[in-house]
């Protein structure tokens, strides 16, 4: 494994360097050619590494933007949910205020239905971390409003005839949902 000087062109030739030497698998490759090829390969590796780093940076920014968007969407959804519950409370306050004085017919759309029946008990109890006693009291408050017999005793005279059956079905569904939620929390 030595260097020979090629008499014809005066270039050093690397002999027998094998797979890891200047010439790789080629015999008789000039030192300058091997060095130029090694430099080109290094430059190519650096270019690929730079591209890969740029891709990783781009993916990282994309993931950050996605996480920010998801947080914004979650905040908007929570704000929307809070608005729906606020409208629900306000509508019930109006209905309670009008219940004795008004004789205006009550339509299905006039009844303030809970935005999410599954969340009604938790919300009335003060959240998922409510104590058993708080949940029990909230259940009783909700049943006073949503039990079909109680609801009909209070609003039957005002229900429009064409909406009455639909209103009763929905009231029964809300009451059943409350009972299921209470039973699940008690166990």
Task: Give a written overview of the molecule.
The protein has 187 residues and is mainly α. It folds into 2 domains: 3-46, no CATH class; 99-186, no CATH class. Helix content is 67%, strand content 4%. The chain has 5 helices and 3 strands; from the N terminus they run E-E-E-H-H-H-H-H. It has a 3-stranded antiparallel sheet with strand order 1-2-3. A hairpin with a 6-residue loop joins strand 1 and strand 2. Helix 2 (117-125) crosses helix 5 (161-186), helix 3 (132-146) crosses helix 4 and helix 3 packs antiparallel against helix 5 (161-186). The relative contact order is 0.07.
Sum up the structure in keywords.
repeat, 2 domains, 187 residues, 5 helices, ANK repeat, J domain-containing protein, mainly alpha
How would you concisely characterize the structure shown here?
Helix content is 67%, strand content 4%.
Break the fold down into its secondary structure elements and pairings:
Layout: E1 3-5, E2 12-14, E3 29-30, H1 31-98, H2 117-125, H3 132-146, H4 148-155, H5 161-186
Antiparallel strand pairs: 1-2, 2-3
């Amino acid at each position: 494994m030595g260097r020979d000087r090629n008499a014809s062109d005066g270039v050093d030739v690397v002999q027998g360097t094998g797979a890891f030497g200047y010439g790789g698998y080629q015999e008789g490759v000039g030192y300058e050619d091997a060095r130029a090829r090694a430099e080109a390969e290094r430059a190519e590796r650096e270019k690929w590494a730079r591209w890969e780093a740029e891709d990783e940076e781009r993916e990282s920014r994309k993931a950050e933007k996605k996480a920010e968007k998801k947080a914004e969407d979650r905040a908007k959804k929570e704000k929307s949910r809070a608005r729906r519950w606020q409208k629900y409370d306000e509508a019930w306050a109006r209905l309670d205020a009008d219940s004795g004085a008004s004789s205006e017919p009550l339509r299905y759309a006039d009844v303030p239905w809970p935005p999410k029946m599954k969340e009604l008990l938790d919300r009335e109890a003060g959240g998922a971390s409510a104590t058993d006693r708080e949940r029990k009291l909230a259940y009783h408050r909700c049943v006073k409003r949503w039990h079909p017999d109680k609801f009909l005793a209070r609003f039957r005279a005002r229900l429009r005839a064409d909406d009455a059956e639909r209103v009763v079905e929905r009231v029964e569904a809300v009451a059943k949902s409350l009972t299921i939620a209470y039973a699940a929390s008690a166990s």
